Amino acid sequence: MFAPTIAPAAELALERTFERAMGAAGRALAEMSGQEIHVVATEVARTSSRHVIEAAGGAGTIVVGIYLGITGSLTGHAVLIFSPEGAHRLAGILLEGFAELSPVWDDQVAPTFNDLELSALQEVGNVTVAAFLNEVGRHLDAPCSPTVPIAITDMAGAILDAILADLTVETDEVLAAKTSFINGGDTIEGAVLVLPQAESLQRLVHALGAD
Fold it and tell me: Is pLDDT of 211 > 70?
């Protein structure tokens, strides 16, 4: 569970923004893949990086992160996080009928992904973060956009520490949404994390009415 640091009314404003954005992301992924995919934000909070790492299972938990920078009227970082097993399943849904998947690993082997799987996961990150920024952009005077996505498999603490090192010391606040990617009876849990620079965070929450 994420531990929110904002009032209920502000949290509701963030929830509605993420809900609309994830709905758009699901429609884009479904059109891209030809699969029935729904994306739902199940829990939204403005919280601390420590709570996010705890929610991911702890700093030493291996995760797959799809990282993107944020440029334009907002600056900062975003990352979409999955368990390795969840990332493998999601790549399989997107690539079904197009490519073979890499073998499923056991607990004693570090997870690996082939190039097509990595490309599919990077596109999930691109579509999901772009949908959020498009939704936010409706409330800003100038557009913001993501950089080219990069897929990383590492410990949750290492991925977030690398991002936080670039943020100002004024804040380590994260806009976090636990997110479900649903295909028929298969539900894959992930998390969308948005880590703006301090000035951009204030501009963002003010624009969304989430002060």
Answer: no
The pLDDT value recorded for residue 30 is 94
**Measured between alpha carbons, how far is 135 from 9 in angstroms, rounded to an integer?**
19
Q: pTM of whole model > 0.90?
A: no
Structure tokens at 190: 């992930």
Output the pLDDT for position 51.
Answer: 83
**pLDDT bracket for residue 38 (50, 70, 90):** very high
Domains of the chain: residue spans and CATH: 8-207 (3.40.1550.10)
Contact 21, 132 (CB under 8 A): yes
- At residue 164, the pLDDT reads 79
